[in-house]
Amino acid sequence: MKILVTGGAGFIGSHVVDLYIEHGYEVVVVDDLSTGRLSNLNLAATFYQLDIRNPQLEEVFVNERPDIVNHHAAQMDVRRSVAEPLFDADVNILGSLNLIECARRHQVKRVVYSSTGGAVYGEPEYLPCDEAHPINPICQYGASKHTVEHYLFMYQQNYGLEYSILRYPNVYGPRQDPYGEAGVVAIFTGQMLAGEEVVINGDGEQQRDFVYVADCAQANLLALTSGDGSGIYNLGSGRGTTINEIFTTLQTITRYEKDPMHAPPKLGETRRIYLTAEKAQREIGWSATTALEKGLAQTVDYFRTSERLTPVRLTPTSIQVEARAGGTDGHSQDALSQLVGESTGKATETSRGGSDTNQFTDTLDQIYAFSHELVNPPDQNATLQRLLELALGSVGAVSGSVLVLDEDRRIHDGALMYSGQSDGYDPQQLEDTLDRGLAGWVVEHGQAALIPNTCEDSRWLQRSWEADYGSSRSVISVPLMARDRVVGVLTLAHSEPGRFTEKDLALLVTIAGVVYLKGEKAISVQPSG
Ligand SMILES: NC(=O)c1ccc[n+]([C@@H]2O[C@H](COP(=O)([O-])OP(=O)(O)OC[C@H]3O[C@@H](n4cnc5c(N)ncnc54)[C@H](O)[C@@H]3O)[C@@H](O)[C@H]2O)c1
To answer: Which of 320-329, 382-391, 439-448, 501-510 has the highest mean pLDDT?
Structure first.
């Protein structure tokens, strides 16, 4: 069975995708990456980077012919919905309608829709809320999410398109965006781990129902086939937890020492809400099983490790290309060509018409050949050296290093190159190089430091500095990623400051993107034996 998941690169959607794939379903993801991340995306899914409002969505249905649609893509920020109600309605209502129309036209059997129990009931008349509670949203987001429930009802009545509507409580867990406006657990966790001030809006006595994301994903699994095809289910723990309780529990787990600050309460937010999931238990066999303390501890663990290691977003085009490549070689080459074209942007347009067209084509061929090599590397070290040579050659750098990191961010493996001469991994030589500052600001004392993400572009870093031995250099560095974590760092250096161009950076990001696609197999921190 094939399932199309919208928002599958987002927080909850990506967990749903993982669970579906784990259960053997074929998954297609549509996500515009407005708040989602490539690093969340399961590599076994086919990915289309597309806005659900785009008429091209139809093509995805034509190509993929999904049996079921799971709809997670949304503008899901309550405060943004209050500030920009037209945008909220455009994405959440018109975008959903575009999707539901495609589902109808292409004989989709069922739509599983993520609605919100936290926002459709408004200020509850009784607690815990069940599904029969009056619908009285007090924010635009609640109204737009609920509107889609009406459309689903109508499409079921008129066209037989089945639905399972899941009304979520406050979902929390790994991959929630700690930098956003929504998701108090992620925000507090991020701030506590960084030692920053934590701000509680209002007195903190407002109550919410917190459910761990894995439980929520489980409901999406059950909702595929259980129920009668016209079911609305609250997901909830049945228990209200105050924001102050969340603060103190996280404070204990993270050993945060400061007191919280308080800001005025936010417009459009409910004072107390929690949901009963008795109907979900009865009809689809779901209940929330993860205790709050356990879920919060797992969330903190996640933010302590992988989240801090993924501060840089890679170019989205790399994954899109994989999805379009479709497996045949001719196709892949076209796709890679497009990838390089897209990520080099304007710089490429100039180079296509200019004298370095051949160099561009050569680079493209090399990246293409290298992407094949990465699938099944005969020898990791040789592959790393080839990666380095390719990167150096592409941008005309004089020296560089590629480092593979272990779980503790220590250097596990690597390759070095000076002025065209390549060396295998020699720990001493690598340490010496780092001492001399080649990649010292990315990797300190053999351990990868947090990569400071100061560039507007946010995909790369460039820095010039006076090295110990007196001459200025410019250095560019990009993370090599596999799934949720940084597995390595590719750094190139040139002896002249400001030597690297936009195009160089774009090519390097492209190369890193290819590693991202294949990296899990190519770069391994297991001892090679
Ligand atoms: N997080 C919660 O506690 C919660 C509570 C109630 C309901 N929900 C619902 O769950 C769903 C997922 O929320 P989340 O917390 O994972 O948020 P999220 O922002 O992480 O996920 C939303 C995903 O949709 C994508 N997206 C946004 N607009 C899009 C568009 N126009 N076209 C294509 N993709 C688009 C984003 O890039 C992102 O990957 C949403 O529908 C939200 O309304 C979440």
So the answer is: 382-391
pLDDT for residue 404: 73
Which of 306-315, 333-342, 422-431 shows the highest mean pLDDT? 422-431
Report whether residue 72 contacts ligand 1, using a CB cutoff of 6 Å: yes
Would you call 85 helix, strand, or coil by DSSP? helix
| Ligand 1 neighbour 113 (Cβ under 6 A) | no
Q: Which sequence spans correspond to the domains of the chain?
A: 2-307, 323-521
Distance CA 316, CA 336 (A): 13
Mind giving me the DSSP string for 386-437? HHHHHHHHHHT-SEEEEEEE-TTSBEEEEEEEETTEEE---HHHHHHHHHTT
CA 265 – ligand 1 centroid, Å: 24
Q: For 116-130, 174-188, 237-251, 338-352, which range has the lowest pLDDT when averaged over its residues?
A: 338-352
Instruction: Give residue 274's pLDDT band: very low, low, confident or very high (50, 70, 90).
Output: very high
Answer whether 32 contacts ligand 1 (Cβ < 6 A).
Answer: yes
Topology adopted by domain 2-307: Rossmann fold (3.40.50)
Mutate to test the pocket of ligand 1, among 76, 170, 176 (most ligand atoms within 8 A of CB): 76
Distance of CA 11 to the CA centre of its chain: 7
- Return the best residue to mutate from 72, 88, 233 for the ligand 1 pocket (most ligand atoms within 8 A of CB): 72
Distance 10 CA to ligand 1 centre (A): 6
Classify domain 323-521 at the CATH topology level.
Beta-Lactamase (3.30.450)
